[in-house]
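Help needed: design a sequence for this.
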């Protein structure tokens, strides 16, 4: 099974929440998973979409987490010039 993505990870955090869509065309039974994510007061976040999930933490202007899809897993780290 082929795994990978050419999609750039762009997250826009507004009021301690963001949405993310995982495109996984290699998974014919679920090619898209969507997440509505709320960042908790301690900086943690987690959201599920069926068997897939996104989870991680925010500290200051740094965010790190994992996206686990039906066939592929990704780790991400991001920095912002603003605050989350």
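Sure. Designed sequence:
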């Amino acid at each position: 099974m082929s795994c990978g993505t050419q999609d750039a990870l762009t997250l826009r955090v507004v009021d301690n929440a963001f949405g993310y869509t995982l495109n996984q065309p290699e998974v014919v039974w679920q090619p898209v998973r969507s997440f509505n994510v709320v960042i908790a007061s301690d900086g943690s976040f987690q959201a599920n979409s069926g068997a897939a999930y996104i989870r991680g933490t925010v500290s200051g202007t740094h965010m790190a987490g994992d996206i686990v899809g039906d066939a592929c897993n990704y780790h991400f780290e991001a920095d912002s010039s603003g605050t989350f």
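The chain has a mean pLDDT of 88.
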